[in-house]
TrEMBL record:
This is Sugar isomerase. Pfam families: AP_endonuc_2 (PF01261). SUPFAM superfamilies: Xylose isomerase-like. The lineage of its organism: Bacteria, Pseudomonadati, Bacteroidota, Cytophagia, Cytophagales. InterPro entries: L-rhamnose_isomerase, Xyl_isomerase-like_sf, Xyl_isomerase-like_TIM-brl. GO terms for molecular function: isomerase activity; metal ion binding. PANTHER family: L-RHAMNOSE ISOMERASE. It comes from Microscilla marina ATCC 23134.
Amino acid sequence: PSEMMTTPELIAQTNQSLLADHQHQLYHLQEILAKKQIDIEPVIQKLQAFQVSVPSWALGTGGTRFGRFPIGGEPRSIEEKIADTSLLHQLTGSNNAISLHIPWDTSLDYSAVRQFAHSRGIKFDAINSNTFQDHPQQVYSYKYGSLSHTKAEVRRQAIEHNCEVINIGQQLGSKALTTWLGDGANFPGQNNFRKAYERTAESLQEIYRYLPTHWQMLIEYKPYEPNFYSMVIPDWGTALLLAQQLGDQAQVLVDLGHHLPNTNIEQIIARLAGIGRLGGFHFNGSSYGDDDLTTGALKPYRLFLIFQELVNAMWSDAPTNASDIAWMIDASHNTKDPIEDLMQATEGILIEYAHALLIDQKMLEYMQEENEVVQAQEILQAAFRVDVRPLVAEARFRNKACIDPLTFFRAQRIRAALIEKRGVASRATGL
Ligand code: LRH
Ligand code: MN
Ligand code: MN
C-alpha cells in the first residue's frame, strides 16, 4: 500500500471512485426486489453481521503430496498470520477472527499474541488440536491412532495435548475446541470397530471434563483420509452419538468436503440444526472429496440450499441459533494467492447467504404444506437466480470495507509488498 495513506483511507478513496456505479446497480436491484415485496435493508444488515473466520493454515499456499508452489511473502509467525487476517478483514469486513491449529501455531507468549490480535481487530475462533501428525517433542507416535489408540499411554498423550490446546485457547479468548481425528484403519481386520469407538468416546470424555463451562467441543467427522478403509469418526451419525454421550457442550462440526460424492449435505444441516447440535462449519468446495477448493466455485446451488436450511432453522426457532455456530473457511491452495482465495470464498459464502435470505419462508412453507411441488421449487430457484452481488458489496461498503476487494488487493500490489517485507522464500506453517 502507498506510504502516503493508511489502508482505510485508501479503501475510502477507492470506494468513492466506484460508488456511483455501485449505487446505480443497488437501486436497480432494490426496485426489482421491492416488486416482490422484499425489503433489502434487513438482508444487508444480516450480511454485514455475518463473520467467517480464517484458518491460520490457509494463509500460506497449500499443496498436494505431489508438489508445492509457494507464492512468497507468506506469514512466518502467529503475528504475521494475524496481520494477514486483519488485512483481509479490512478489505472484506467479514473475516474478524482467526482459527489456530496447535502446534502449527505456537508462541512463547500467548497474552502478547492476544493483545496484538486485539490491536488489529481480530478475535480467536475455535482452536484446533492436532493428533494426526507426530510432532518433534512428543514421546509416542500417532501412527496407529491417537484418542482411539490401543495403548493407554498414547491416548493419555493425545488427551493431554487437547487439554493443553484448551489452555492456550483460554489465554487467547477462544471459546471452542475443534477435534478432528485421523484415527482409523487402512485394512480390514486392523481395528476392532466397537473398541476403537469406545476408546475414542472415553478419551473425549476426559477432554470434555476439562472443558471450561462456557466452552464448546466441536467434533469433526470425515469418511476417509488419512485412513482409507475405516475412520473412527466417519460420519455425522457417529459425531452426533459422541456429542450426545458427552453432553450439551459437545456439538457436531460439518466440513463441506467431508462427505462422499452426492451426499445431501443440506439435509444433514437440517437434522443437526433442528436438534441444536450443529456447532461448527468448515466451508470449502469439493468435486470428489476433501478437495479444499474455493467455496462456491463448484456447487453454489448446494451451498445456497445449505444456507436455506440454516435460515429456515433460525426463522422457525429451531434450537440452533446461527450466532452460536463457529463459521470457518477450511481451504488450501496450490495455485492461488491465499489471500485472494479467501476473498473469493468469503464472497461466495455471502452470496449464497444473501440468496437464502431472499426466500419467503412463509410462502415456501405454505407450498410445502399444500404439496405444491412445482411452486416450492420455483421459490428456491427464483431466489437463487437473482444477482445479489450489489447487496454483498453494499454490506461491505457499510462495514467500511472495499466495494471490490479483489481489484483493490491487486491495484495496491499487496502481495508484492508482502514479498518485499517477508522475502520470496518465506513459508507458512500448516498443511
Ligand atoms: C481435515 C481437516 C480438519 C483439519 C484441517 C487441517 O481434513 O478438514 O479440519 O484440522 O483439515
Ligand atoms: Mn475441516
Ligand atoms: Mn478436511
